Amino acid sequence: MLCLFTVAPGSNAAERKPVTREEFEGEVQSLDGSDNNSRNPLYGVANTAYRRIAPSNYSDGLSAPAGGPESRYISNRIFEDQAQNLFSENGVTQWAYNWGQFIDHTIALRATSEELLEFTYDESDPLEYFAHGDGVFRTSRSAAVEGTGVDTVREQLNTISSFVDAWAVYGGSEERLEWLREGAVDGDLSNNGARLLMSEDQYLPRATERGDAASAPVMERLGNLLFAPDADEQAIVAGDIRANENIALTGIQTLFAREHNRIVDQLPEDWSEQTKFDTARQFVIATQQYITYEEFLPALGIDLKRARRYRADVDTSVSNEFATVGYRAHSMIHGEIEMANLASSYDVQTLEMFEEIGIEIEAEGDHIELAVPLNVAFHRPQLVNQLGLGPLLAGLGGEPQYRNDEQIDNQLRSVMFQIPVEHVADSQECLDGPTLNECFVLVNDIGVLDIMRGREHGMAAYNDMREAYGLDRITSFTALTGEATESFPVDDPLVDLEDPINDPDILTYTELRDADGQLLELGSDAADSEAVTGVRRTSLAARLKAVYGDVDSLDAFVGMVSEPHLPGSEFGELQEAIWKKQFEALRDGDRFFYEWNRGLQSLTRLPELQGITFEQTLSDVIVNNTELEYGDIQSNMFLVKAE
């Protein structure tokens, strides 16, 4: 009998306990992670606390958010991108940040409270380009784990399981899953079909799919869905409540619901519906894991320690540092999604609707090219049906994502999830780029939220977090950014020498280069589409020093995104360390992980399952579930196709 060995916390080699083959076979993985680690039953389970790697950093030592410079002030001087796109230097496509979000919605979702966090910003800031609201940003504070924050350090709750287990597809409760599966909704899963519920044209079900939208599982609705009079007809239902957030995410959710049903349809007809469902779910989970570890992480330059065996002593629980700092890679998010399709795929009314909401359309012979600005893609799930799943998924692999750095696109940094002001709602001219402020008022800033979420979760300061992850402390701002100076220029006539940090000209670009190191003409089409590095009139180190004064005062998120990338990686030292530690734990502490899931390995050897495999690339899954063929997309969807 095959035995693997694990070490319980605090044990020595003589106390190792065998993990038998029977522990791996004949089991159905729970929805909430509760059956994964029998020896440490709270590891990775839904509705348990995020674990901490670094010491907490609350202003009162217990629960009050940490202080620091005003967050919008930081955002305007550090995150503002001046509408200049910088792209991945390694040719990593938009699939990376979208797959990252799919995984995020599988392993983490904070519990919220009714407590509001309010933080003001200066409406007269000379670096503020947007019309103002009421001078205050608001967000809900994360709920405290019961019993914490009074006499002990406040901890936060992860409401979903930490395992890479396709939670976003299936959800974490029998009630949600029953609604998502074909068959009656009567509280009895045993009479449900093996397939997931889909529309007639094989898109995700709408809230009205079963007639009464009020009885459908709760889904988050913001932006366009919040104000649409037919929101119930538009909103789709999936395993995770956030599936309506943007069309790329909705598209990925649709793809994997189709993959589940594709597998079900290939299983033996004489198997029970429940057995077919469980088998398909097991393959979908393993496929999500396989793509994550074999394609997604390598494309980003994350090189994990070699996997050897399942270890029950490894806590898979998502860390607060990962969820609140390291995984917040919002700089990667591209300002638009481009795709191509046959012009005959759309009728005149559809094309007119596309133009009306701000989608750019360009005819190329019998093909049509479409560019969907990010703010148009937010909370419009039915656009997936209208644009077509295949073209959308192919489009995500057509261009590199934005460079993972300190810059954040203004569609996220100033107007996230909002709709245009009424008098310009029918204009395409200001829905993206330098004129975005003509369409929108300042409402929200994801960079501000990144900073404030870290402060309210008591995240360690930048250097303290580096130390907790085994990295050396940084002693200067130039050592942090890799630049030559942390001083403002003393002889630049375009910079206010008396008060440079409040001079808008400090952010202008003076040099741009492509992936080959070639200079690009500022303001040219090439600069807009090929730049991977840029030099601004003032160094990032100088601006960080003027804002924070001391490296030890840096917010961990701000310091992390300011680090230069490691060779061949999309990350600096701290972010890479956070990712490596978390993804190694998610692998090594998951008893059902595909590399040592003996039940899964046994399934793959059944004669009845010939041709069904979890060892699929993302391009395999796309080709198997859309009209696309292998010649239409690259073999690795995470890397730009070589010319």
UniProtKB/TrEMBL annotation:
Any one Pfam family match given in the protein's UniProt record, by short name: An_peroxidase
GO molecular function, one term: heme binding
Keywords: Glycoprotein, Secreted
Localization annotation: Secreted
Residue numbers spanned by region Disordered: 15-39
Gene Ontology CC terms: extracellular region
Main location: secreted
Signal peptide: none
Alphabetical GO biological process terms: response to oxidative stress
Domain of life from the UniProt record: Bacteria
PROSITE patterns attached to this UniProt entry: PEROXIDASE_3 (PS50292)
Protein name: Peroxidase
Taxonomic source organism: Granulosicoccus antarcticus IMCC3135
